[in-house]
Amino acid sequence: MPHAIVKSINSYEDKQDLDTFVRDALHLNEAVASFLAQRNPDRLVVVKPNWIQQGRDNAPEVWHPLITHPALVLAVIEGLAEAMGGQGTLAVCDAPHTYADFEAILARGDFRNHFEAWQKRWPEMHFELIDLRREIWVTRDDVVVSRHAAPDDPRGYAQLDLGRDSLFFNHPGEGRYYGADYDTEEVRRHHCGERQEYLLAGTPVACDLFVNIPKIKTHKKTGITCSLKNLVGINGNKNWLPHHTEGTPEDGGDEFPTPTAGTGLESLLKRWGRRAALSIPGVGSWLFRQMRRAGKKVLGDSEATIRNGNWYGNNTCWRMVLDLNRALLYGNLDGTWREASQPKHYLTLVDGIIAGEGNGPVAPDPVAAGVVLAAADPAVADAVTSQLMGYRMQDIPLVRHAFDTTHRWPLTAVSPAEIRIRDDRSACECALDELPPAVPGGFVPHFGWKILRQRHANED
Predict the structure, then answer these.
(1) Which residue in 447, 325, 457, 448 sits closest to 391, CA to CA?
(2) What was the pLDDT predicted at 401?
(3) Is the pLDDT of residue 452 over 80?
(4) 338 within 8 A of 208, measured Cβ to Cβ
(5) What is the mean pLDDT of the chain?
(6) Is the pLDDT reported for residue 127 higher than 90?
(7) Is the pLDDT of residue 158 over 80?
């Protein structure tokens, strides 16, 4: 049996092809297929799309390269409901950006009405749509100007401490991590010494089967975003997640590639601005906005300037992502851990029909890649995705380190050399390095990753 399936689908309107792909994917993993064939009204299956936000900030009508297309999400839900025999609970959930419009995302696929129709079709099933965010923000000029609380996950939250098994244990960046909010002390409290904690939403942790449906995109901090990176959307507090380490590689950081007078000034202004925004409501946010506006004029816009760990030298974000994947696969709702031989049932189906290249993950340009893929574990999925994008997985720390089988809680049972792929595009089975890219020349990477790609192209 292959470890992954790649199929050519050129349009989201090809419902028959999507349904066939979903059926094949649900039988890719024998344990998952057996689990779905059981009749159990108490089981919980979670579907996790990439619903980062409803469209690009500067072009709201451009959304196809940002989020998992509704056609694939709907096909997966229907396929699961049928495979489950109309019994059990099926929850679709994500934590979009804190400033995203959840209802606008759902409207892309008319999900509310579909869920009502499914509830009538399968009356013994429970269908849930859950916004996993605990706080909603209003931003102006990329500065938070107001916040309000959102409803908690109905199944609560799991506080999971990886301790010495975290990829941050003994990391030299400790004490300088930046999370996702202005209070840097919060992320540093949860990642200190043997305390390496994550707060995960209870619904994904409590589920019996986790079905990941990411979008193929480039990513400014990790090179690509697919199955592994999509788990940022199951957290209960993004400010517990280290995204970069302040400083430059010269002093053990990865915020900037090299130290300059400009980077030093920028770091100082950001610290002042964040403190002002936290300590002086209203006025502080206004001051921070003025600082950012002035900084862009002098130091450059983030669409063309490397900052905040948005480059191939980010040695922080990939660690956080792999920690999250282990927490999902092996963590329990009460904070305890599973045995390494008993990870959670998992399956991933990837949307690459219209993918995203360039300034991903929130401002990518569309690329008609015309592919979907399925895999039984997230490491294989992202290795195959890297190959389809025209990248070598060895160049992407997130993917390369996902194959560390010596870890207490492995993310895959195979090595890259052992991966076999059923490539329906050429009606053959092939090895990873034999898989042709989805588009000639590969995807245009985020500008912070072009140097890495060019360097290895020169070496070749």
Answers:
(1) 457
(2) 98
(3) no
(4) no
(5) 92
(6) yes
(7) yes
